[in-house]
Amino acid sequence: MTTAPVILLIEDNAPLRENIKMLLRLSGYEVHAFDSGLSALEKLKVKKPDLVLSDILLPGMTGYDILGEVRKMPACSHIPFIFLSALAEGNHIREGMSLGANDYITKPFTSESLISTIRNWLKRNTNPPGSPRQPLPDSQNASSDSDRDSGKCARIVYYLTGGLFPLPALPVCPH
User: Fold this and answer.
1) CA 55 from centre of chain
2) What is the pTM of this model?
3) Rounded Cα–Cα distance for residues 11 and 109 (Å)
């Protein structure tokens, strides 16, 4: 049995943090969510995640500062780090990438783009030898049950978030 990939989420906007956490959990990830970089870095010392997803504008320390601290930790320097930010201008994206971020998602975003980006980085990242974690299966190879479950998850998130994450294009039900 494989263990669900662990995602460290750092977002200070409580409703958005809870919505992202719910989406990620419904997508099969274990999520540790924090509202500040300091508390997230403390958790990182105890449990190494498979991926870090962080806002940039945070209380106490910026996402850029968090990235710098993560990259200084030998055991964590290889972990994919993705910024999730409303700072959508090219200079902000370039700064994040030049500091060592693996990717940069601008707000607002769709649930599909977030999950796809996470899935792709988890596939790219090679886990240390002996790690029981495996990347999630490619969505193109998903079974029809998995496809139905994905649609169900998307509809649940859409309903619970009041439409914050738009529904994906789903096939029309013939019934």
Assistant:
1) 11
2) 0.71
3) 14
- Please state, in angstroms and rounded to a whole number, the distance separating the CA atoms of residues 28 and 111: 14
Domains (range + CATH), the chain: 6-160 (3.40.50.2300)
Cα–Cα dist 31/163, whole Å: 22
Residue 151: closest CA among 168, 172, 130: 168
Give the whole-angstrom CA distance, residue 92 versus residue 90: 5
pLDDT band at 62; cut points 50, 70, 90: very high
- 107 Rama sector, left if φ>0, alpha if ψ -120 to 50, beta otherwise: beta
Q: Measured between alpha carbons, how far is 121 from 16 in angstroms, rounded to an integer?
A: 22
96 dihedral zone (left: phi>0; alpha: psi -120 to 50; beta): alpha
Q: Which residues pair with 34 in a beta bridge?
A: 10
Give start and end residues of each alpha helix (H) in 90-143.
90-98, 111-124
- Grouping H, G, I as helix, E, B as strand and the rest as coil, residue 141 is helix
> What DSSP designation does 126 have?
P
Alpha-carbon dihedral 25, 141, 136, 168, rounded to 10 degrees: -30
